[in-house]
Prior knowledge:
By secondary structure, the chain is α/β, with parallel strands linked by helices. An eight-stranded mixed sheet has the order 8-21-20-19-9-16-18-17, sandwiched between helices. Strand 12 and strand 13 (400-406) form a beta hairpin. Helix 2 (52-60) packs antiparallel against helix 4 (85-115).
Amino acid sequence: MTHIDAGTDLDPVHPTTAPATGRARGLTAAEVAERVARGEVNDVPVRSSRSLVDIVRANVFTRFNAIIGVLWLIMLFVAPIQDSLFGFVILANTGIGIVQEWRAKKTLDSLAVIGEAKPTVRRDGVAAVVGTSEIVLGDLIEIGPGDKIVVDGACVETDGLEIDESLLTGEADPVVKHPGDPVMSGSFVVAGGGAFTATKVGREAYAAQLAEEASRFTLVHSELRSGISTILKYVTWMMVPTAIGLIISQLVVKENGFRDSVARTVGGIVPMVPEGLVLLTSVAFAIGVIRLGRKQCLVQELPAIEGLARVDTVCLDKTGTLTEGGMDVTGLRPLNGSDEAYVRKVLGALGESDPRPNASLKAIIDAYPDSEDWRCTEALPFSSARKYSGARLSEGDGQSSAWLLGAPDVLLPDDDPALTETERLNEEGLRVLLLVRVTRELDDPEVARDAHPTALVVLEQRLRPDAADTLRYFDEQNVRAKVISGDNAVSVGAVAGKLGLTGVVVDARRLPAERDEMGEALDAGTVFGRVTPRQKRDMVGALQSRGHTVAMTGDGVNDVLALKDADIGVSMGSGSEATRAVAQIVLLNNSFATLPSVVAEGRRVIGNITRVATLFLVKTVYSVLLAALVACWQVEYPFLPRHLTLLSTLTIGVPAFFLALAPNKERARPHFVRRVMRYAVPGGVLAALATFSTYLIARHYYTGEGALEAETSAATLTLFLISMWVLAIIARPYTWWRLGLVAAMGGAFLLVLAVPRLQDFFALRLVGTTMPWTAVAIAAGSAVALEFLWRWVDHRFPA
């Protein structure tokens, strides 16, 4: 037995072997233990998660929390506790954000364990499935179609092994591997099988750094998050000079008491900060992950929730998506006088020739058991690009024959009479494979030339019971479905028709290669058959070039390139390791019916954050403008922090939390910043002008002791009523709970005005009747103006 020393260069061509068979046995248990003790294990970081420390740091140490924190500490020393309430609100909000994100992390981590790759490792001559992190240096790893190469290595055994390295090199053509050839982590098997020795594991592997970088928590990378960051940048620019002017006006120009001046200055600065907007976005995303996790949906990149909500075209792979993975042989049609009993033996031997059969071959294996006296002497594994597999068989009587099994319209010329029968069966939605006898060598590029048709194998595909409802949902939501399959176009069209999906059926071999022309053909068609893996990728790109946001679903290796290039890649949990690795969303329950839940969750998040962002930014705009007006007029700032804490809680904080988590089916639209600011700016300007007008009128109306408190109360009433009207507009269309929410917030404010203790606590007391009714009238006029103004904005600046 040869011992491989991990401290020296591994010789992948001569691993430990069994003397009796010559088959590589892999490491022994003692060698594995020795490597684990030396730390030579595949310690790749856990995917899609960040630590609790990172979560706390991200939620606590923010620019705006620092501003609010400093102002809060100042207020704790110079003002009553009710003027420091805003600080406690920030603490509570930050705590909620940390808890929700921690829950989302645990959900992601638990689902990632379920969906992670499980390589097969041969140790002591026995193959066993292990976790990726259990692989050690020198392990012998078995691979087959669809398997992802999880560590770097060198081939030991190959059987028609073809590996796609496009995710690493960008070259789409599969690479044929022979013993001794290197394999790189991040590539995947498209045909054949074999085994390789691990030469680099953990962070030393070729793709480890890329994988670690790509799998980090990616909440910040989305149009929604980047849009909010843009808004906050502009807010900061506006806030700094305005706050300086307010400080000067309150502390230098006006001759107020120091404590009161500081309190009113802080009262002007605090509401400029839309601190809850970032928090609410994080909470909405986190809750979305938790909700989807309960439905066995792994969101590998959080912005995928947002991305799928923006999708207007879904490209569906038929097999495994519209149909279940399994098939049943329903008929055998011998051709050209072939003997059926002989054909059954050929099919049985072909089935046993592939150690990792696909769904079609599994059905043939179930229907036609292998004959003991037949054996395979050479195999040609199935390839999505070729559309056929093959084998050279040694028959029981010593004769040798070569056979191909695959797509009839690929193996036969267009005028062959067998295609007529094939077409008829395809129109019934049946899948048909052709068995042909060949005279050329299997590795001949033209092996199918002059082939002798021997039999048609008829298979029936099992439709997913939920596929029709899911397709109907997409149609109702104005999301176009495109079925893209490697199978015969007529057969795929018949299957789609059974599920209620109608439209033009296209043979992809006749699609134009030029991107613009292909895009036009894709827009016109619905079902596309005989699509090659490279064509799938080109089709996704052509749709994107025409302005479509494209989602691609699939479960096979032929879908990987398209999944990678699509805006959103969706893989089935039972799909190949390669598809799960590149997809942003993995449906662990293998249910296509889960997809509407993902779309709905994304629409809920984006639509609702767009709504509540308007609430927050209306407050920011009117706060900045009020501070500027106060500085220009050289008057006391009308509000203390307690007043704006009350207003923010009732008109923004509480309502925004409920609105952010409410159902929302509207398809997400682009230009988040423009959509939000076109409402926030006019709404905020109108609120500031109306409030300041009430305040100036009240300053002329009230005189003597307590005048400032009366003036503040009148201004607060106007600002509250306008803010409530903004909330009432944002809450549309009304449902019973939305109306109840608006009414409850109004009732809470009336309670504060009616209860003496609350009046004292919040320093709110309406004096007389003239000024309060004036405040109401100004607010009512502003509400009417706001309705007209927002409708004009809708018409003048459509989103």
